[in-house]
Amino acid sequence: MNRFKVKIDDIQERVKVPKGVRLLVRKCCKAVLFEEHKENFENVKIVFAENQMLDRLSGKNLAQEKNELFVRQPIENNSDVGEYLGEVYISLEKAMQQSQAYNNSFEAEVVHLTAHAVFLLLGYKNRSVFEKDVLLDKENRIVQMLGMTYHNHI
Question: Which end of the chain, N or C, is more open, meaning fewer C-beta atoms within 10 Å of its C-beta?
């Protein structure tokens, strides 16, 4: 796990990323992989994007019902970068809106979205009520491990 790298790009201009959010995102990714015993992955890419970009993205989105996330697994694994988990695009605009609507901190909202995305990359589904409950429980555990509280959007 020592080699695991989280590349974070901020290509949006609407939300100022608070200090410490990038570190929390990195810790979140590592916590999910550790909890799932999937420590063989070496890289994941996180992109902070605007709503319009997520609307424009095409391809297979593992978070189909979500308009705050776009998640895709790599088309092919490039041996130059090691085991590549995939790409996650997070709308910080949507995270800000949801944090205010559900009385969560912005940081907890971003961490929860990140955890959700990484679990999807690892193959979890959230089509049935049971799958959604399992995923939500796992996400909440990660948020708590990082010392935050999160109010579900139910």
Answer: C
Give the 3-state DSSP-derived string for 11-51, with helices as H, strands as E and coil as C: CCCCCCCCCCHHHHHHHHHHHHHHHCCCCCCCEEEEEEECH
Q: What is the mean pLDDT of residues 101-129?
A: 93
Domains of the chain: 5-145 (3.40.390.30)
> What does 112-151 look like in DSSP terms, one character per residue?
HHHHHHHHHHTT---SSHHHHHHHHHHHHHHHHHTT----
Calpha distance 48→50 (Å, rounded): 7
- pLDDT tens digits for range 43-90: 999 999 988 888 888 666 777 656 788 888 876 655 555 688 899 999
Q: Work out the burial of residue 58: count CB atoms within 10 Å of its CB; fewer than 13 is exposed, 13-18 middle, 19 or more buried.
A: exposed
Burial class for 97, CB neighbours closer than 10 Å (0-12, 13-18, 19+): middle
